[in-house]
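Progress report, Aim 2. The chain analyzed during this reporting quarter is listed below.
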Amino acid sequence: MRKLLVASRYLLILPVVGSLLLMVGVVVMGLGVVLTQGWNLLSQGEFSPKGAKQLTLTVIESIDMFLVGAISYIVAVGLYKLFISQEEEQILKRVKIEKLADLENKIIGVVVVAMAVAFLGKATEAVDALAVLQGGVGVAAVIGALCLFLRFSTPADQ
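Predicted C-alpha coordinates for the chain:
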Protein backbone atom coordinates (compact mmCIF):
# COMPACT_ATOMS: atom_id res chain seq x y z
CA MET A 1 0.00 0.00 0.00
CA ARG A 2 2.86 2.38 0.81
CA LYS A 3 4.42 1.85 -2.64
CA LEU A 4 1.06 2.51 -4.27
CA LEU A 5 0.64 5.77 -2.35
CA VAL A 6 4.18 6.88 -3.15
CA ALA A 7 3.78 6.06 -6.85
CA SER A 8 0.31 7.63 -7.09
CA ARG A 9 1.71 11.07 -6.34
CA TYR A 10 2.87 11.16 -9.96
CA LEU A 11 -0.78 11.46 -10.99
CA LEU A 12 -0.46 15.04 -9.81
CA ILE A 13 1.63 15.69 -12.91
CA LEU A 14 -1.70 16.05 -14.72
CA PRO A 15 -2.90 19.07 -12.70
CA VAL A 16 0.61 20.55 -12.89
CA VAL A 17 0.57 20.33 -16.70
CA GLY A 18 -3.05 21.53 -16.78
CA SER A 19 -2.19 24.53 -14.61
CA LEU A 20 0.74 25.40 -16.85
CA LEU A 21 -1.44 25.14 -19.97
CA LEU A 22 -4.07 27.31 -18.30
CA MET A 23 -1.39 29.86 -17.41
CA VAL A 24 -0.12 30.01 -20.99
CA GLY A 25 -3.65 30.26 -22.42
CA VAL A 26 -4.79 32.99 -20.06
CA VAL A 27 -1.63 35.08 -20.47
CA VAL A 28 -1.73 34.81 -24.28
CA MET A 29 -5.45 35.64 -24.27
CA GLY A 30 -4.90 38.66 -22.03
CA LEU A 31 -2.09 39.92 -24.21
CA GLY A 32 -4.23 39.39 -27.31
CA VAL A 33 -7.10 41.36 -25.78
CA VAL A 34 -4.82 44.29 -24.90
CA LEU A 35 -3.17 44.35 -28.33
CA THR A 36 -6.45 43.97 -30.23
CA GLN A 37 -8.28 46.63 -28.24
CA GLY A 38 -5.31 48.99 -28.43
CA TRP A 39 -5.03 48.50 -32.18
CA ASN A 40 -8.77 49.03 -32.66
CA LEU A 41 -8.70 52.29 -30.72
CA LEU A 42 -5.61 53.53 -32.57
CA SER A 43 -6.96 52.61 -36.01
CA GLN A 44 -10.29 54.32 -35.27
CA GLY A 45 -8.49 57.42 -34.03
CA GLU A 46 -10.48 57.29 -30.82
CA PHE A 47 -8.40 59.80 -28.83
CA SER A 48 -11.09 60.92 -26.44
CA PRO A 49 -11.95 60.45 -22.79
CA LYS A 50 -14.38 57.72 -23.84
CA GLY A 51 -11.63 55.87 -25.76
CA ALA A 52 -9.21 56.27 -22.87
CA LYS A 53 -11.79 54.89 -20.45
CA GLN A 54 -12.43 51.93 -22.76
CA LEU A 55 -8.70 51.19 -23.04
CA THR A 56 -8.26 51.53 -19.28
CA LEU A 57 -11.09 49.09 -18.66
CA THR A 58 -9.54 46.63 -21.14
CA VAL A 59 -6.17 46.89 -19.41
CA ILE A 60 -7.73 46.34 -15.97
CA GLU A 61 -9.63 43.29 -17.20
CA SER A 62 -6.45 41.96 -18.83
CA ILE A 63 -4.50 42.44 -15.60
CA ASP A 64 -7.14 40.27 -13.97
CA MET A 65 -6.44 37.59 -16.60
CA PHE A 66 -2.69 37.90 -15.97
CA LEU A 67 -3.31 37.41 -12.25
CA VAL A 68 -5.27 34.23 -12.99
CA GLY A 69 -2.24 33.12 -15.02
CA ALA A 70 0.01 33.89 -12.05
CA ILE A 71 -2.24 31.86 -9.74
CA SER A 72 -2.14 28.95 -12.19
CA TYR A 73 1.65 29.11 -12.30
CA ILE A 74 1.95 29.26 -8.51
CA VAL A 75 -0.38 26.25 -8.21
CA ALA A 76 1.67 24.30 -10.76
CA VAL A 77 4.96 25.06 -9.02
CA GLY A 78 3.45 24.38 -5.59
CA LEU A 79 1.94 21.03 -6.52
CA TYR A 80 5.15 19.98 -8.22
CA LYS A 81 7.29 20.99 -5.26
CA LEU A 82 5.00 19.48 -2.65
CA PHE A 83 4.24 16.14 -4.26
CA ILE A 84 6.57 15.32 -7.14
CA SER A 85 9.98 16.92 -6.73
CA GLN A 86 12.52 14.97 -4.72
CA GLU A 87 15.10 17.74 -4.91
CA GLU A 88 15.94 20.12 -2.08
CA GLU A 89 16.57 22.99 -4.49
CA GLN A 90 13.52 25.09 -5.27
CA ILE A 91 12.30 25.30 -8.87
CA LEU A 92 12.06 29.03 -8.42
CA LYS A 93 13.90 30.73 -5.60
CA ARG A 94 11.26 33.46 -5.44
CA VAL A 95 8.39 31.01 -5.05
CA LYS A 96 9.31 29.30 -1.80
CA ILE A 97 6.72 26.61 -1.10
CA GLU A 98 7.60 24.01 1.49
CA LYS A 99 4.20 23.14 2.92
CA LEU A 100 0.54 23.45 2.02
CA ALA A 101 0.13 26.61 4.12
CA ASP A 102 2.76 28.34 1.96
CA LEU A 103 0.76 27.52 -1.16
CA GLU A 104 -2.48 28.71 0.45
CA ASN A 105 -0.87 32.00 1.50
CA LYS A 106 0.46 32.70 -1.99
CA ILE A 107 -2.85 31.87 -3.67
CA ILE A 108 -4.87 33.96 -1.21
CA GLY A 109 -2.52 36.90 -1.73
CA VAL A 110 -2.99 36.78 -5.48
CA VAL A 111 -6.76 36.28 -5.12
CA VAL A 112 -6.99 39.43 -2.96
CA VAL A 113 -5.14 41.46 -5.60
CA ALA A 114 -7.30 39.95 -8.38
CA MET A 115 -10.48 40.85 -6.48
CA ALA A 116 -9.27 44.43 -6.00
CA VAL A 117 -8.45 44.74 -9.70
CA ALA A 118 -11.81 43.23 -10.71
CA PHE A 119 -13.62 45.64 -8.39
CA LEU A 120 -11.72 48.57 -9.88
CA GLY A 121 -12.81 47.44 -13.36
CA LYS A 122 -16.44 47.17 -12.31
CA ALA A 123 -16.30 50.52 -10.51
CA THR A 124 -15.11 52.31 -13.64
CA GLU A 125 -18.07 51.09 -15.68
CA ALA A 126 -20.72 51.48 -12.98
CA VAL A 127 -23.34 54.17 -13.37
CA ASP A 128 -24.91 53.83 -9.93
CA ALA A 129 -22.93 54.89 -6.85
CA LEU A 130 -24.98 52.52 -4.68
CA ALA A 131 -23.97 49.57 -6.88
CA VAL A 132 -20.30 50.54 -6.47
CA LEU A 133 -20.74 50.76 -2.72
CA GLN A 134 -22.50 47.37 -2.55
CA GLY A 135 -19.83 45.76 -4.71
CA GLY A 136 -17.08 47.30 -2.59
CA VAL A 137 -18.66 46.04 0.61
CA GLY A 138 -18.95 42.55 -0.87
CA VAL A 139 -15.32 42.51 -2.01
CA ALA A 140 -14.21 43.90 1.36
CA ALA A 141 -16.14 41.19 3.21
CA VAL A 142 -14.48 38.42 1.17
CA ILE A 143 -11.02 39.97 1.57
CA GLY A 144 -11.66 40.34 5.32
CA ALA A 145 -12.68 36.69 5.56
CA LEU A 146 -9.52 35.63 3.71
CA CYS A 147 -7.40 37.76 6.03
CA LEU A 148 -9.06 36.18 9.06
CA PHE A 149 -8.43 32.74 7.56
CA LEU A 150 -4.75 33.57 7.13
CA ARG A 151 -4.52 35.03 10.63
CA PHE A 152 -6.08 32.09 12.42
CA SER A 153 -4.84 29.24 10.21
CA THR A 154 -1.12 29.94 10.70
CA PRO A 155 0.64 28.99 13.91
CA ALA A 156 1.40 31.83 16.32
CA ASP A 157 5.15 31.29 16.16
CA GLN A 158 5.42 32.26 12.48
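Residues 49-84 form the longest helix (36 residues). The chain has one domain: 2-153. These observations will guide the mutagenesis work planned for the next reporting period.
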